Structures are given as C-alpha cells and as structure tokens.
Amino acid sequence: MDAQGTSQGPILPPAGVVHGPLGWLRANLFSTPFNSLLTVLCLYLLWITVPPLINWAIIDATVSGTDRTACAGASGACWTFVKMRFGQFIYGLYPIEERWRVNVVFAVGILLVLAALSPRVPGKLWSGGAFVFVFPVLAYVLLGGGLGLPVVETRLWGGLMLTLVVATTATVVSLPLGIILALARSSRMPIVKGTAVVFIEVVRGVPMITVLFMASVMLPLFLPPGMNFDKLMRALIGISLFASAYMAEVIRGGLQAIPRGQIEAAQALGLNYTRTMGLIVLPQALKLVIPGIVNSFISLFKDTTLVAIIGLFDLLGMVQTASTNPEWLGSSVEGYVFAAFVFGCFCLAMSRYSQALERRLETGHRRR
Questions:
Q1: What is the pLDDT at residue 98?
Q2: What domains can be seen in the chain, in order of their start residue?
Q3: Of the candidates 106, 141, 142, 111, which has an alpha carbon nearest to the alpha carbon of residue 127?
Q4: What is the pTM of this model?
Q5: 48-to-37, 39, 45, 56 alpha-carbon distances in Å
Q6: Residue 343: how many CA atoms within 13 Å on its side-chain side?
C-alpha cells in the first residue's frame, strides 16, 4: 500500500536486463565490442601460457632423486634442486642441530602477529606490546645464543630466516621513527624541522645500496673506540634509517590531510600538543595512509635482497649461491621460481590484510 491507500505490485527489473551468470558476463566482460575483444584476447593469452606452465611446473616436473641426474631427460621443472637445498633456503648455514631454535622463533612470531592483527582475538594490545618489546629479546637470545645456548655467529644466518629478521626489524623500527620524523618536519621549531628535512632529503636522495655500504664501512668510523657492531647489526641500522625516511613522507601526507579545525577543536578543549597529536590527529592520519604504509612495508620486504652486496645471504642470495654449485648447474630457474613464490606469498598476505583493515576502518569514506 502506498501513501494514498492504493496497492502496488512487485518491483520488476528494467526490461532487457539479464540476471545470473549470463547477465554478469554481459555486464562485465562483453558490455561493448572493445571489451569483448579484450576479453577474447585475454582468454587466448591465458590459453597459450597457463597450460604449458602447469605442464612444466606440475605434470612433467621431477621431485624424486638426490642430484641433477634424476632430472636428466625430463622436460619439466627439476624440483629436486629445491628439495635438496630447502634447508639452506630457509635457514642459511645455521647449524642443523640448532635449527629448532629458529623454528621456535618462527612459531612464536607467527602466533604473536596473528593475535595482534586478528580482530576476534582479545588482548591485542598485549600481543602487540609483546611482539614489539619482548619478542626481539627472545629472538636475539634464541638465534644468537646465550643463557646456556651455543652461540651462532650472524655470518651463518641466511635464507628466509635472515630475510624475515631484516624485514621485521626494519618494519618495527621504521614506523615509530617515521612518525617522529613526520611530526618533526611538521613542527614550527626551525631547528627541529630543519634537522628532519635534511635527514629525510639526504636519505631519500641516495639509493639503498649506498646506505648499506655506508652502514657497513663508514659506521664503525663514527663509533667510540672499542665499540663495534657485526655486519648484520650495521645492515639493520642502515635499512631501518632508510625506510624511516620514506615512512615519514607517507605519514606526513596523512597529517596534511587532517583539517585544521580538528587541531583547533582539540586546543579549545584544553588538550596540549602531545594529547592533540596522540588522541586526535595521528589516529586519523594513520588510518588515511594505511595503503601507503603497507606499500612501504612490501617494498622494504623485497629490498632486503640487497643485503647480499655486503656479504649477507638472504633467501635470494642463498638461491643464487646454490645455483652456482657445479652439481646443480641448470637448475637456477627452479630456485628463482621458489624464491618468487615465497616473496609473492608474503607480499600478498600483507596486501590482503591491508585491504581487510581498510574495509574494517572504512578508510575509503564511502557515501551512504
């Protein structure tokens, strides 16, 4: 019944609209002649690339055996290389009898990350605090040795373990340091602002390779006599500072997106600068730049492969080193595919979590 008391029939769709799978195909893939041509072209490219790739990677692949001779005459991938070198790809040259320590660190880190990022798990603040303050100490003791555990030098660290150590450390350090630099660059105090501007512009003006070389070679020159860091620690310092400069600009973009009225309203309520930034401005700014922050994390995770130039062998470095072994000449493609798969899984996980976080926080500001 409408407002005048007359009955109305059911609302029917417009004439000519087709629902179901056929309607979806027509609306999304064949809506215009040009879109139809692109759809047919994409289907053709998939047809000529996907089946041969499946044949090479799965159907005709070889997994059995212990050396290159097991793949002789095979037309597919030689995954025997990855199987036999899997331990080096994950742990590097870490002693086999001590690899349980790495597994414990992996397990604890994954549990803390899942607990801190999952919206359904209570106590996320405690989980996040444990990951930032407690987990690094636990990982350092377990991986490096101490408290009764044999010491394992960092020169033996490598593979995926080293990649995660570098990426996680740089990520945890660069985010708060980037926030401090962004606030310093937005400050009205000339000395604070000038120092932040010089640091950000200088670091962003040089490639990461240069930063790694400077951290590895020049950093010991500025340390007091008798103080020295090993090569891994110097690389962590250099990468963290490099990433923080880019993170600062991402966060500064979020700060500039906050209307001035927000700050004025906080000042009218009697809030000081610290409370205004911590309670009003930063939460909104960080929410707005979630895509940029995650993009920086993904780029940082992939840039960890550059540590190979200073003698640290991450996952990609271990693959390259294993491929030069005369016993496995010709198997480098399988190693690179494995490394690409691992990097792709981690980057995809970060990207998907970022999208889920954006939807939960409604960062797109969709009109209702």
A1: 93
A2: 88-152 (no CATH), 159-361 (1.10.3720.10)
A3: 111
A4: 0.85
A5: 17, 14, 5, 13
A6: 22
Predicted local distance difference test score (pLDDT) of residue 225: 76
Q: For the chain, how far is it from start to end, CA to CA, in angstroms?
A: 27
C-alpha span between 222 and 219 (Å, rounded): 6
Return d(Cα 67, Cα 84) in angstroms, integer.
8
Tell me the two tokens of residue 241.
């500072």
Burial of 79 per CB tally in 10 Å (0-12, 13-18, 19+): buried
pLDDT confidence of residue 202: 92
Could you state, in chain order, the average pLDDT of each consecutive group of 10 residues for the chain (368 residues)?
Answer: 58 58 81 90 94 91 84 83 92 93 94 84 80 89 88 92 94 93 91 93 91 83 75 90 94 90 88 88 90 92 91 91 82 89 94 86 56
Question: What was the pLDDT predicted at 55?
Answer: 92
The residue with tokens 């922050």 is 293
> Which pLDDT does position 142 carry in this prediction?
92
Could you give the 3-state DSSP secondary structure of residue 157? strand
CA 31 to chain centroid: 37
- What is the length of the chain? 368
Q: Measure CA 202 to chain center.
A: 24
Provide the b/e sequence for 277-301 (b: ≥16 CB within 10 Å).
beebbbeebbebbbebbbbbbbebb
User: CA-CA distance, 300 to 208, in Å (whole number)?
Assistant: 10
Q: Residue 158: what pLDDT?
A: 92
Task: Report the candidate in 159, 152, 176 with the shortest Cα–Cα distance to residue 230.
Answer: 152
For the chain, strand residue ranges (E) read none
Nearest Cα neighbor of 88 from 362, 344, 338, 349 is 338
Q: Report d(CA 119, CA 126) in Å as an integer.
A: 13
CB 332 within 8 A of CB 76: no
Rounded Cα distance between 353 and 175, Å, is 17
Query: What is residue 72's predicted lDDT score, i.e. its pLDDT?
Result: 79
Tokens of 143: 């991986």
Phi-psi region of 146 (alpha: psi -120 to 50; beta: other; left: phi over 0): left
